[in-house]
Specification:
The protein is α/β, with parallel strands linked by helices. The protein has 3 domains: 120 residues, Rossmann fold (3-Layer(aba) Sandwich), CATH 3.40.50.720; 180 residues, 3-Layer(aba) Sandwich (Rossmann fold), CATH 3.40.50.720; 181 residues, 60s Ribosomal Protein L30, Chain: A, CATH 3.30.1330.90. It is built from 18 helices and 22 strands. The strands form 4 sheets. The protein has a 7-stranded parallel sheet, with helices on both faces. The longest helix is centred in the middle third of the chain and has 19 residues. The mean pLDDT is 92. The structure holds nicotinamide-adenine-dinucleotide (NAD) and 3-phosphoglyceric acid. Nicotinamide-adenine-dinucleotide binds next to helix 5, helix 7 and helix 15. Nicotinamide-adenine-dinucleotide (NAD) binds next to helix 5, helix 7 and helix 15.
């Protein structure tokens, strides 16, 4: 008997679809140990954000074939382990877009008109019309951070309400923003200029604590901040301090670094100008029905041997091609990750150049893998082989594919990725050696010979005596261990690049020190 376990509250419409093909057991509130003990009996697991699907849970799922997330974020699922174990992960990327956007709008309006505070005061017997005088949104500046599905809906509605909308999203082209009547801005300018700021970006290592004391300090003292995206993007202690000290005008949050919100969270000690809701962004009857139906249909189809439409971890490519091209795909993704971390500003174009023997491989999977790598810093684990091309298109990123069979640089050929954007571009080349090892072979046309490693530091500097020693000393003083180092140059005492593999990531404060070294022109920490 095919069995599906539903471990979070799911709309009945979804349960009814699952029941067409399986026995459905609904068990909400299971501990990780309970889940581990039970999961071995099930073919599918359907969840929301409440269930932590850890590596141990997935490994205990001997017959588990699919995990369905009735919602967008799969940050509570160990997707790499699922992929490794051959378990498909599906989600509903659009089912709750409107609900989350409307929650942000509700919070903006509540902040501007003190709705929760005025309600509480009236219920307590008060009639205070003076204390709760508010502000209009009309003609105010809205700053949207993350102009994706939810951010663009908020921008559209706020435009219609007469607000001036500016946005920060390094992965949206200026043309696309213009179509939405949105002016792109730097993050700093946005925080300085906006009267309302709303966050709609994913939580990734890059966006963790992005809104910190420094950025909050740039806001107008009357400006209000809304977060319906993910907890952890705002430094909650810094926000509590900024609200208490009147550095900003107010904040409304739906999501938290730790959920449920800890009883001793600094946010709970803020008396005024703060509105908190318990992760209700997707909690509308419409959205819950949408996501439940969307995901239940995918689970049903997969259990019947049909493909899923929103797979997070399975490429739409044959298993045979995937197996044959595994190291080449890995190279394309690694180069994509690398080049995206060198490139600042708005990305407008990605050129994928297949050289020598590389040009004989099917290009589509390599282009998709490169795009997946490039977009990972923007979209985290939400980007996959299935959606990479669509996501690039939606962001107005042009993709050029060039085949150059005549190139003879490496026996197995090489792959070069070049990004172009409003702040110029970068290019990186790599090759796959006969034993499957990957090599980075050029960075911005400078020859190198580097094995990719998890943490790296890349510099562009003047080729002159002492610079390598100085950089080594600065890293040593900050206890950053260097595993390997390579310098690439084209002419003596001209420009050069340095590539260091390091054991630890570079803290932001150290990057400032590195930039101050005489002769260093650029320094990029890279995580692969
Ligand atoms: N509160 C809720 O219940 C709820 C409901 C649904 C979605 N969400 C969350 O809302 C967020 C947005 O969802 P979406 O569906 O619009 O996603 P999306 O992928 O369509 O859009 C995210 C956008 O953020 C941009 N981005 C990435 N890194 C950035 C950075 N460092 N600075 C600025 N922009 C950056 C991306 O380019 C992209 O355009 C996600 O974090 C999602 O998990 C929350
Ligand atoms: O990622 C999502 O879809 C939202 O955060 C909603 O989460 P929920 O399904 O737990 O309400």
């Amino acid at each position: 008997m095919t069995k599906v376990l539903v471990s979070d509250p799911i709309d009945q419409a979804g349960i009814d679809i699952l029941a067409q093909v399986a026995q459905v057991d609904q068990r909400v509130g299971l501990s990780e140990d309970d889940l581990k003990a039970m999961i071995g009996d099930y073919d599918a697991l359907m969840i929301r954000s409440g269930t932590q699907v850890t590596a141990d849970v997935i490994k205990a799922g001997g017959r588990l074939r699919i995990i369905g997330r009735a919602g967008v974020g799969v940050d509570n699922v160990d997707v790499p382990t699922a992929t490794q174990q051959g378990v498909l992960v599906v989600n509903s990327p659009e089912g709750n877009t409107i609900a989350a956007a409307e929650q942000a709008l509700a919070l903006m309006l509540s902040l501007s008109r003190h709705v929760p505070q005025a309600h509480a005061s009236t219920m307590a017997g008060g009639w205070d019309r003076k204390k709760y005088v508010g502000n209009e949104l009309y003609k105010k500046v809205l700053g949207v951070v993350g102009l994706g599905k939810i951010g663009s809906h908020v921008a559209r509605v706020c435009n219609a309400m007469g607000m001036e909308v500016i946005a920060y999203d390094p992965f949206i082209s200026a043309d696309r923003a213009q179509q939405m009547q949105v002016r792109l801005s730097s993050l700093e300018n946005l925080f300085e200029q906006a009267d309302y700021i709303t966050l709609h970006l994913p939580r990734t290592p890059d966006t963790e604590n992005l809104v910190n004391e420094e950025l909050l300090g740039k806001m107008k003292s009357t400006a209000r901040l809304v977060n319906c995206a993910r907890g952890g993007i705002i430094d909650e202690s810094a926000l509590a301090d900024a609200l208490k000290a009147g550095v900003i005008g107010g904040a409304a949050l739906d999501v938290y670094a730790q959920e449920p919100l800890a009883t001793d969270s600094p946010l709970r000690s803020v008396q005024e100008r703060l509105i908190l809701t318990p992760h209700l962004g997707a909690s509308t009857t419409e959205a819950q029905e949408n996501v439940a139906v969307d995901v239940a249909e995918q689970i049903r189809d997969v259990l019947l041997g049909l493909p899923a439409r929103s797979a997070v971890n399975i490429p739409g490519l044959s298993a045979e091609i995937m197996e044959r091209l595994k190291p080449h795909l890995q190279l394309a993704e690694t180069l994509g990750l690398l080049v995206s971390q060198l490139s600042g500003g708005q990305l407008q174009e990605l050129e994928v150049r297949l050289q020598g023997e590389f040009a004989q491989h099917p290009s589509q999977p390599l282009v998709i893998a490169a795009l997946k790598g490039v977009l990972t810093s923007a979209l985290g684990d939400r980007i996959n082989y299935v959606n990479a091309s669509l996501e690039a298109k939606g962001r107005g990123i042009r993709v050029l594919e060039v085949k150059d069979e005549t190139s003879k640089d490496f026996a197995g050929g090489s792959l070069q990725l070049t990004t172009r954007g409003d702040q110029g571009g970068h290019s990186v080349t790599g090759a796959v050696f006969a034993n499957g090892d990957l090599r980075i072979t050029t960075i911005d046309e400078f020859p190198v010979n580097v094995s990719p490693s998890r943490h790296m530091l890349l510099t562009r500097h003047r080729d002159m005596p002492g610079i390598i020693g100085q950089l080594g000393s600065v890293l040593g003083e900050h206890n950053v261990n260097i595993a390997s180092m390579q310098v690439g140059r084209r002419i003596v005492r001209g420009d050069a690049v340095m590539v260091l593999s390091i054991d630890d990531p570079i803290p932001p404060s150290l990057l400032v020190t590195i930039h101050a070294i005489n002769g260093i022109k650029e320094a990029h920490p890279v995580t692969l």
